[in-house]
Amino acid sequence: MTAALFYAWILTLPAGSCPEPDPPGPVAQAAPQGESADPGTEGAPVRVEWRDGLRIVGPDDGFEIRLGGRIQQDWGFFHGDGGFPSGPAGEDLLADGTQVRRARLSMGGTLHHTTHFAVEYEFASPERADGADAVGLRDAWVERSDLPGTPRVGHFFEPFGLEAQTDARALTFHERSLPAMAFAPGRNAGLALRRRFADGAGSVAAGVFRETDDTGFDTGSGESAATGRVTFAPRHAPGSVLHLGLAYSLRNTADGGERYAARPEANLLMPFADTGLFRATRSQLLGGEAAWVEGPWSLQGEAMLARVDREDGRDPLLGGASVQASWLLSGESRPYADGVFGRVQPRAPLRGGPAEEGVHPGRGAFELAARYSFLDLDNDGAMGGELTSTSLGLNWYLDPSTRVQLGYVGLTIDGRSPVEPGNQVDMLLLRFELDF
């Protein structure tokens, strides 16, 4: 009932507030590459251009195909105190290593002005907590911006949390914070509505979902959810942002129950906090978020709670929080739109080759960042452990497509963690990233 009222409220917001995803803007004319298939514009040129990826634009800008991709190569070096245990098979749980964290190709665009779509495929297979193969589809959705609520259907992120809604290419640190990893729902199959309000200062999104694997597949009774997020930015000028947000998710469990787990903010390591699967009938997630940006300075924080209704009458309340700060030494500011942050664009990119109009070659952009994160998965029958992390980061944005990240994470393990409590872990992380 609550979800139905929420969706009805979205539909009653003022018409014309439906956002169009990444609408094509003014572009320079390029040499004709082909002919339009639209009889009404037959003979008009199709433009092929490079603008944050390869774009094929129709003669009236109502048709556009965007091709993109990303590569993230990670290295990790880990050290624990003398009492750090081995894994179930005697393996070293803190073995140094490397992996291709993400290797993706994507295609999205606009058809007939109002039909928008996105498809993304993952080629890398970083180890998952459940041991499943991670290769396969990620995003696969279609939406219509000319219908009330801009309905979107397919496989995509549920609208919950600031970090979870932020693209991995725009994250300040290597991985999302501990509570975001443990509680924020990922991509699932569903139908969602979204609107802007207050002249673009606010946004609301809500949907119904069925939990799937990373590729959008699921059979059986499955877990269903109703999830929504509301954001409001009383100040949202370029370089000056005050953001507030609230999210809620009601989830009916099936096929065994619930599980909450989080890696120690390094994907090369196993989850150090993990409740395991426990019987439950329903769960509720609540998230609060806030962010402030003023010029090169940024501060953001999130808190999340999970209330689980168990079959044995014990209803654990689990939670976590994180806060982070960053400073762009070269003077840039984090871009913001529609309740999420985008990737930093260096003012003076490190660029060789012939000079480009409006581009002033330099050393790129440098960013210093710090984060504190806490997660508690121990409460009233849930035995997942407690993690506390302190992170420091240095990011170098060489140009709009290339970034190098160097990070340190200090982790403390307590409570009834699957890893022996009382241990300290030091992590040095390095990432090379290309995206377009």
List the SSEs and their pairings.
Layout: H1 2-12, E1 47-50, E2 54-57, E3 64-80, E4 97-111, E5 115-122, E6 136-144, E7 152-157, H2 162-165, H3 178-183, E8 187-197, E9 202-210, E10 224-237, E11 240-252, E12 261-262, E13 273-274, E14 282-294, E15 297-309, E16 317-328, E17 336-337, E18 340-341, E19 365-379, E20 382-399, E21 402-414, E22 424-435
Provide a descriptive summary of the structure in words:
By secondary structure, the protein is mainly beta. It is built from three helices and 22 strands. The protein has helices at about 1-10, 160-165, 180-185, and strands at about 45-50, 55, 65-80, 95-110, 115-120, 135-145, 150-155, 185-195, 200-210, 225-235, 240-250, 260, 275, 280-295, 295-310, 315-330, 335, 340, 365-380, 380-400, 400-415, 425-435. The strands form three sheets. It has a 16-stranded antiparallel beta barrel. A hairpin with a 7-residue loop joins strand 15 and strand 16 (about 315-330). The two termini are about 40 Å apart. About 40% of the residues are buried.
Mean pLDDT across all amino acids: 86
Unreliable stretches: 15-41
What is CATH's topology name? Porin
User: Structural class of the secondary structure composition?
Assistant: mainly beta
Q: SSE order, as H and E?
A: HEEEEEEEHHEEEEEEEEEEEEEEE
Number of helices: 3
Concise overview:
This protein has 436 residues and is mainly beta. The protein has one domain (2-24, 62-435): Porin (Beta Barrel). Helix content is 5%, strand content 49%.
